[in-house]
Structures are given as structure tokens and as C-alpha cells.
Amino acid sequence: MRNCPKYFKSCWRICTKECACVCEIVCRSGACSLAKRSGSFIKIFSSSWWFAHATVSPRTVSYELGKIMESNVASKGVIDARSGDMPYDLYGWDRSGSDRHALEKAVELRLAELDRCGVAMQVLCAPRALVKSCGNDRDRLRHCNSALKEMVDISCGRLAALALLDLDDGEFGAAAFQQAMEHGFHGVAVPTSYSGKRIDDAEFQPLLSFAARHRKPVFIYSEGLGDGGPQIDQRQQENVGVSVDLAICLARLIFRGHFEQLPELLVFLDQGGGAAPSLISRWDHGYRVRRECQALIPHPPSRYLNNVFFDASTLDNAALTAAINSIGPQQIVFASAERSLDGELDRARRTFGESDSENQALLYTQNNAARLYGGGKSL
To answer: From CA 66, how far away is CA 51, in angstroms rounded?
Structure first.
């Protein structure tokens, strides 16, 4: 395969089936952890699928990615459903894309770490610091998406990516979402608010409707509560503001009826959803005793959590345990935010109560990742 690094070329052969170009991986050298231990083939689409050169149904694309993830259950590989760690090379990568060698080296090192940690597949997302630095710099934002695509392209199916959106480009991001999907991204990353508008405001309705129609996940991150005034100063935005902001975001999406109106909308929350998991029971209580809470939704808020996924990147065992007890393990996916996967994997294993070395507990979160990227359906 022409876009594969030389050290993986031996793992690929191309075939044609039902007018679609597919790759079948068999790793004779053991370099690719996607291969089943029995040596049998695992089918994944080639780069023509990743970048939409072939005409495919968006629903089929989502479903197939979910099947790819689910197939790795047999190989005992973990799915990293959202990695906020990007190589340092990306930050200073030449916008012309001339420094391809640095990016290829970054991918090579990343794949080696995935193999070492037993991670079968990783979904890339630019970290919040990089997103924030883009601001209204469309050129830098598009450069970042191009770099993400480049990493996916040379990863031999080990990496996927969430796109950053230019929210000023057509109906607050709906047009940019469509373009990202056409270029092979499997979801988008958006902030809780933008230009004074929150993600649940009417201006973002076309974006959310597009996501629901095509069953693509919307990953939501927070930069804090903005100008918190005397209550939250800048030093406390990361400590307090982010968690509170994520909870406010989910509450507004639920109580303003977005999941009721868009039953196929899939939302994926950063940092374990912040304070949201610990507040679900209060939201249900408020729904029962306050009529105004029932105005736009006919069911208690917890009823809509099947559409919401929370990452396990809580930085604390107790916080993740509380989330599991509150919302159940079926809505939690493993995600990483640190440069080394080891610490986060170990914490997740301990929290999920794993007792052996085969990632049994984390495989449960892998099935959740397959649901998230497979359109929310049980596969």
C-alpha cells in the first residue's frame, strides 16, 4: 500500500470485494497488534475509505469503524477512544506540510507505544491547548486537521481522528462538519461555547442535526467558564471551571430537548463529563418535582444517557469509580490525555477491578467505543 510506512508494508495485501477497496491485515512479523492471535485476517478499509475517495454511505462508514473496533476484542487489544496527546512536532509543523519526515517518525513512535501497551487502535484529537491557540486562525486550524489526516493516512489503520471545526464556516460548523466527514474524519471536537453562544443554542442546531443524521459523535471539551468574575479566577478555571462547565453543557442539552428531538445524536464528553455524573440523580429529582423541568422532555434526564459517552480520563480513581456507579460502565470509554499511556491504563485497570493482565475490564470499554464510533448501535 503506497501510503504505508516501509516497516508495515509487509503486513498488507490489497483485494477487491463488492466494488470496495479493502485491506486484509495479516502480521507474520508480529508488528501489528490488530492481527488476531490465530493469524486470521481482520478486514479494514484502505486509505481510500479513510479519505472518502470512494463513494460510501456515512452510516456504513460509522458502522464499519465500530465493527473494526469490536473485532479487536478477540485480540485483547484496548481501544483508546480519544487521545488528547499529540506529538510535539505537530505544534511547529511547517504549514506547507514539507516536514513529512518528522510526522512519519512521530507516527512510528506512537505505533510502537501502542504495541507496547497493548492498544489496538487510537482515535486522535488535538489537545485543548492547541485548539485554543488556533482561535480564529483558520489557516492554523486547517493545518492541524491536515496533520491529523496525514497521521491517519500513514498509520495502516491503527489511527483515526476527530476534526476541529471552523465554527464560523456555514451555519456554525455544519458545513465544516460535512467537509470533515467527506475527508474521512469519524467525528468532530467542539467547545462547550463559541463566540458567546453555547453548543445547545439555536445557532448550533444545524451542526447537531447533521451529526445525528449521520450518526457521527460530537466530542465536547471545555476551556472553563470564561469570565467567572469573583467566583472563579483564571487560576481555578482548570480546577473548577472545566468540570462545572461540562456539567452545565450536558444539563442544557438534555433539559432543552436536544436528545428528545434528535434521538440519534451521540455526544462524547471530555474528562469524564466533569461534575455531570455526580449530578444525574439531582437532575432526575428536579425533573420529578419541578414542572418547568418537564417542559421539553417527557422522560427523566437519566433516560437520555444512552446517547452520552464519558471518557475515563478523570485523573483520579475515586472520580472514575463515582462515574461508573452513577451512570454505569456501559457509557464509559477509555481515553488518554498524557504522553505515556502506561499510567492511565494502569489506573483504569485498577478502577474497573481488573485482576489479570489481559485487559478484561478495559475490553468492556472497547465495546463501548465500538458503539460510539459505530453509530451508537450494539454491534
So the answer is: 17
Structural domain that includes position 120: 77-373
Distance CA 340, CA 338 (A): 5
Asked whether residue 178 is domain-assigned, the answer is yes
Place of cell 469570565: 227
Task: Kindly report the CATH number assigned to the domain that includes residue 182.
Answer: 3.20.20.140
Domain annotation covers residue 206: yes
289-310 pLDDT, tens per residue?
999 999 999 999 999 999 999 9
Total structural domains in the chain? 1
The CA distance from 369 to 367, in Å, is: 5
pTM: 0.78
Does the residue 314 lie in any domain? yes
pLDDT in tens, 249-283: 999 999 999 999 999 999 999 988 999 999 999 99
Please check whether residue 170 lies inside any domain of the structure: yes
Name the grid cell of 144: 492541524
The whole-number pLDDT of residue 90 equals 58
